[in-house]
Design brief:
Blueprint: H1 9-16, E1 23-27, E2 39-41, H2 51-59, E3 64-70, H3 73-76, H4 78-86, E4 92-94, H5 96-103, E5 108-111, E6 121-125
Parallel strand pairs: 1-5, 2-5, 3-4
Antiparallel strand pairs: 1-6, 3-6
Length: 131
């Protein structure tokens, strides 16, 4: 058995399949996800599991070279924006419609049970190579 990290079989497999420049989204319970995007739906009650708990666990497994959030998060849900920065991201704010358009190209989505507005992040995988 695996000693640590993501133990959800489907999620672990999707993470392991990421390659440089692939994108993935971690979302709240309400973000509309296009049909056809593989989605790991972890939500079991509103608020459970929380966006930040899931995001912290996923980010511990992946090198992220760039990320995006909807620009409204800074004003409406600033604690999410601050937490993402504390996890080592510098998310680029974009218009909410543009954010949703970019999500259409994501390799997969992780839906949490988060029940606060704009708790979503789109990430582009980097590489773990050292110079």
């Amino acid at each position: 058995m695996q000693r640590s990290g993501i133990i959800h079989r489907e999620l672990a497999g999707l993470i392991a399949g990421l390659r440089h420049t692939d994108t993935f989204v971690i979302s709240d319970a309400g973000l509309p996800l296009p049909a056809g995007i593989p989605t790991v739906d972890l939500g079991y009650l509103y608020g459970k599991p929380p966006f930040l708990d899931v995001t912290e666990a996923v980010l511990a497994q992946i090198v992220v070279e760039h990320s995006w959030v909807t620009d409204q998060v800074r004003e409406i849900n600033p604690s999410v924006y601050t937490a993402l920065r504390s996890f080592g991201l510098e998310p680029e704010p974009v218009d909410h419609d543009e954010f949703k358009a970019r999500v259409r190209d994501a390799k997969f989505a992780v839906r949490t049970g988060e029940d606060t507005f704009y708790a979503n992040v789109l990430c582009r995988a980097g590489v773990a190579f050292t110079p």
